[in-house]
Amino acid sequence: MTEEILHASCVAIDGRAVLILGRSGRGKSALALELMALGAALVADDRVELRRVGEAVIASAPEPIAGSIEARFVGILNAEAAGPAPVALVVDLDADETQRLPPQRSKNLLGLALPLLHNSETRHFPAAILQYLKAGRSA
Q1: Are 92 and 115 in contact (CB under 8 A)?
Q2: How many CB atoms neighbour CB 94 within 10 A?
Q3: Global pTM exceeds 0.90
Q4: Rounded-to-integer distance, Cα 40 and Cα 131, Å
Q5: Sequence-ordered list of residues with C-beta below 8 angstroms from that of 17, at least 6 positions apart, any chain
Q6: Residue 85 · residue 114 · CB < 8 Å
Q7: Residue 9 in contact with residue 71, Cβ under 8 Å?
Q8: Which of 67, 85, 118, 134 has the greatest CB tally within 10 Å of its CB?
Q9: 3-state class of 5 per DSSP?
Q10: Where does the HPr kinase/phosphorylase C-terminal domain start and stop, copy by copy (predicted)?
Q11: CA gap 136, 130 in Å, rounded
């Protein structure tokens, strides 16, 4: 079994997780909080443990920070921690999306290619992420 810990945030809905990547201060926790307000559950914030199990990458929280998420200028908030969840989507906040209908991209994690979205400053981005997790993307 292959394992890795990333500086990232992760939430899940319907048993499918989105892994949010980006440099410090890019808004990983803020996007996770927005997704949680729309019905997602916290998997992990700040540090995400990843392990490969067969053809899946499973995300979970390191025990010391399970059930906690940072809200900048508010503090560390408690949240019910979702259990480990398979990563179905990766969002990279360091790469800005410039195309209205972007190509399908992927990010290699632990030897698996996972769907990748670049950052979008649009108001609907969190809702679009949740819909992606629920129903996927057309060609």
Answers
A1: no
A2: 10
A3: yes
A4: 11
A5: 10, 11, 43, 59, 85, 86, 87, 88, 89, 133
A6: no
A7: no
A8: 85
A9: strand
A10: 3-80
A11: 9
